[in-house]
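[#protein-structures] MJ: dropping Protein-S-isoprenylcysteine O-methyltransferase Ste14 here for a structure pass
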Amino acid sequence: MKRLFHYVELPPVWLALFAGLAWLQARVLPLDVTGRVGDAIGTGLVGAGLAVSGWAALHFVLERTSLIPRERPDKLVTTGLYRFSRNPIYLADAAILLGLILIWDALPSLVLLPVFIKVIEWRFIRREEALIRAHFGAAFDAYCARVRRWL
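AK: finished. structure tokens for Protein-S-isoprenylcysteine O-methyltransferase Ste14:
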């Protein structure tokens, strides 16, 4: 059971949970505020989020290191999108959530976005950074001094 939890308790599951809450809010309290503009912006955000997430994940694959948050990476990835953000995949997840909220006209669910970011930071980023710092030490500290957590 613990091994199953290891693979189920991942950021995409949290993204799906928050997106589900936004979708449910849109069904319970339907609004038609953003119209085609909201749909276009939302679709762009979802598309950009998926592209950024895929591109950032590809760096891990090319470096032959783990992409699973609780697993210790073999290499410190600092190239590509990781030159601008220490967490481009989580940033992409936030963009996807925002895009879905706009597409579904779930504007009251905008409050979920900062909550999602804090949950991701609390459940994943802080632990990942501690694990990476313990493994890479000064190299990770230097990276953190150059590159912000989000943007």
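MJ: nice. The mean pLDDT is 93.
AK: one more thing. The chain has six helices and no strands.
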